[in-house]
Specification:
Blueprint: E1 5-10, H1 12-30, E2 39-45, H2 48-56, E3 63-72, E4 83-87, E5 97-105, H3 109-119, E6 125-134, E7 146-151, E8 156-157, E9 173-176
Parallel strand pairs: 2-3, 2-5, 5-6, 6-7
Antiparallel strand pairs: 1-9, 3-4, 8-9
Helix pairs in contact: 1-2
The structure holds 1-O-pyrophosphono-5-O-phosphono-alpha-D-ribofuranose.
1-O-pyrophosphono-5-O-phosphono-alpha-D-ribofuranose binds at residues 44-48, 79, 102-110, 162.
């Protein structure tokens, strides 16, 4: 696996440090509003599950973890913005403080759809924590309260991000060598 990586963008230690900072910020920001009931962390399978698992352990508040699975219509290479829900949340989120944990914001179309869908369920609040925000031209205008790193518009893998379902288990985030894809 490691031989397929052209360049490491974020090391395991850098990711751990940043996730700890994000968890600290979330703990402070939600301390008053969500002390009793806590927050509902939502991740979109599959890649974001790794980030959410680490982020949850850096939040010192009660946290519920829930998951959605979506599939985008279209050719599969780029998201089309039309999203079908394959697995919905298990919890009711009406009146709850919901934080969506995403691994990467690229075109923003997935999140754009998801935020509309979730907000129609009338949560008390709805925010986004994304580990990576790609510098993508014409990204949908999405208000992310927590952003881990800005990253270049390259083919990146690791820490949940895959190419053909591989490399998700790399502990760091790197650029895939072009000859691999
Ligand atoms: C990735 C990522 C986001 C989405 C971002 O998921 O986890 O959900 O793409 O892209 P966008 O901003 O252009 O909509 P993917 O569809 O690759 O599924 P995976 O998590 O199973 O790899």
């Amino acid at each position: 696996m490691h031989d397929d990586i052209a360049q490491v963008l974020f090391t395991e230690q850098e990711i751990a440090n940043r996730v700890r900072e994000m968890g600290g910020a979330i703990t402070r920001d939600y301390a008053d509003v969500a002390r009793g009931e806590g927050i509902v962390l939502v991740s979109v399978l599959r890649g974001a599950a790794i980030f959410m698992a680490d982020l949850a352990r850096q939040i010192e508040l009660p946290v519920e973890m829930d998951y959605m699975a979506v599939s985008s219509y279209g050719n599969g290479a780029k998201s089309s913005g039309v999203v079908r829900i394959l697995k919905d949340l298990s919890s009711q989120i009406e009146g709850r403080h919901v934080l969506v944990a995403e691994d990467i914001l690229d075109s923003g179309l997935t999140l754009n759809y998801l935020l509309k869908n979730l907000s129609s369920r009338k949560p008390a609040s709805l925010e986004v924590a994304t580990l990576l925000r790609k510098q993508t031209p014409a990204q949908a205008d999405i208000n992310c309260r927590y952003v881990g790193f800005e990253c270049p518009d390259e083919f990146i893998v690791g820490y949940g991000l895959d190419y053909a379902e591989r490399y998700r288990n790399l502990p760091y985030i790197g650029v895939l060598k072009p000859e691999i894809y």
